[in-house]
Amino acid sequence: MIESKAIIEAGATIGEGSTIGDYCFIGKHVVIGKNNIIGSHVILDGNTTIGDNNSIDTHSVLGTAPQDIRTNSDKVGLLIGDNNRIGSHTFITAGTEHGGLTTTVGDNNQLEDGIHIGHDVQMANHCVMQEDAALGGHVIVGEHVIFGKDAAVHQFVEIGNFASLADGAALTQDLPPYCTAEGNRAKITGLHQASLDKYLSAEEVTDIKKAYIQLFTNASPKEQALSALQIQQPTVCKILYRFIADSKRGIPFKRKNNAK
Predict the structure, then answer these.
(1) Which residues in 142-208 belong to E strands, given as ranges?
(2) Which domains, and CATH codes, for the chain?
(3) How confident is the model at residue 67 (pLDDT cuts 50, 70, 90)?
(4) Catalytic-role residue among 137, 142, 160, 190
C-alpha cells in the first residue's frame, strides 16, 4: 500500500497492492481488498467493504449515511464486489434498517462519472451506468443492464437482466428482462437487441421475440398473454413471465406504440 497525504483512521483495513490517492478519507470501519486504486479526494466511510481489483476515481463518496430520515444506525453499510470501475464524483450511500441494511454493487460493473446510487440498491454484475445516471433507494438491478446518460430510476423499481434504459429516460415502473425503455415517463419500446445477440442463442432470441410480441404487440389482454406464456417451455420465456407476474409497480408499456 502507498499512502499519500490521506487520512486513514485507525481500524481501517487496506489490502495488499491497494493504493490510496492524495487527500482521501478512509473511515475506521472501512475494509478495502487487494489491488484497488483509490483516486485523490475520495471519501470511503461507514461500514463499507470493497473487494479486489476495483478503481474508484477522484472526488467520489461511498458508504456515507443513507438519505433517509428514518435511519439512525451504525449497523448499515455498503458492499462493493470485485473488478468494478467507478468514475469520478460518484455517490453511493449505505443501506437502511428497513431496507436490508446494506447497499450492494456486485462484480465487473462500470459506473461512469457523476453516478448516484441510493440506499438499499441491489445491483448485480456486468452493468453499465453512463454519466450522471441515478438510482433511487431500494432499486433492484439484474445482470448486464445498461443505463444511458442522465437516466433516472424511481425508488423501489426492479430492472431485469439484459434490459436497457435510454439516455435521459425516467423510469417509474419495473422494466422486464431483455427490454429497452425510453422517454419521460419511460415506456418499453422494444427488445434490447445488442444483449440478445451477444448473450442468447439464435433459438433463444427467436423465443423471446415471440414472447415479446405475445405480451406487448398483440391485442390480447395482459392476463391472457401471461397465461399463454406461462405454459411455454423455453427458459427465457418463463423468466420473462415470472418477472411480469411478480411486478409490484407494473410494467411501462403502451401496445399501440410497440410495433417491433
Answers:
(1) 146-147, 152-153, 158-159, 164-165, 170-171, 179-182, 187-191
(2) 2-141 (2.160.10.10), 196-257 (1.20.1180.10)
(3) confident
(4) 137
